[in-house]
UniProtKB/TrEMBL annotation:
Gene3D superfamilies: 3.40.50.880. Coiled coil: none annotated. Belongs to the peptidase C56 family. Signal peptide: none annotated. Pfam families: DJ-1_PfpI. The keyword Nucleotide-binding does not apply. It comes from Perspicuibacillus lycopersici. Transmembrane segments: none annotated. This is Type 1 glutamine amidotransferase. Keywords: Glutamine amidotransferase.
């Protein structure tokens, strides 16, 4: 398996976009990666926008990002909640400093904006936050998936196959 031995953080809070969380988790596990579901509290059930639940394995405070190879931020309205946690922003900044893959789709760019890591990067997102991304110093492009070094971004659920193909390729390097 292409990603055996790789460890990935999947951030979660309520109102995540169901497909944008579950599709990456399942694809990474299919490739042999270990995916830790990380929310505000360990063992808590979080509900997606369309009612699909997921239970966290760990709390933000339990995680040392140095023990992980990559991080994923889901879309939906969840990013607006996630970016309020200092631990989340610190995890994202830590991954950025170590040039580890950071995946973001749809509204997930809000978390990267709040972590202050988008200056000079080329990314995509849902068009609804294009202005937020450019105001944070990023160059925004309207493409299904964009790779800028270790940051992999996508627009919305129909782009998930392109997004995960690119994310897996970066993580496998």
């Amino acid at each position: 398996m292409k990603l055996s031995g790789k460890k990935v953080i999947q951030l979660v809070s309520n109102d995540f976009e169901d497909l944008e969380l579950w599709y990456p988790v399942l694809r990474l596990r299919e490739e042999g990666a270990s995916v830790a579901i990380v929310g505000e509290n360990a063992g808590e059930k979080y509900i997606g926008k369309y009612g699909v639940p997921i239970t966290s394995d760990y709390a933000f405070a339990d995680i040392d990002p140095n023990d992980y190879d990559a991080i994923l931020v889901p879309g939906g309205w969840s990013p607006d909640l996630l970016r309020r946690f200092t631990e989340v922003k610190e995890m994202v900044r830590s991954m950025d400093e170590r040039q580890k893959p950071i995946g973001q789709i749809c509204h997930a760019g809000w978390v990267l904006i709040s972590a202050n890591i988008l200056q000079g990067r080329t990314v995509t997102s849902t068009p609804g936050i294009k202005d937020d991304m450019t105001n944070a110093g990023a160059t925004w492009v309207d493409e299904p998936a964009v790779v800028d070094g270790h940051i992999i971004s996508a627009r919305r659920p129909p782009d998930l196959p392109d997004y995960m193909r690119e994310f897996i390729a970066v993580l496998a390097k």
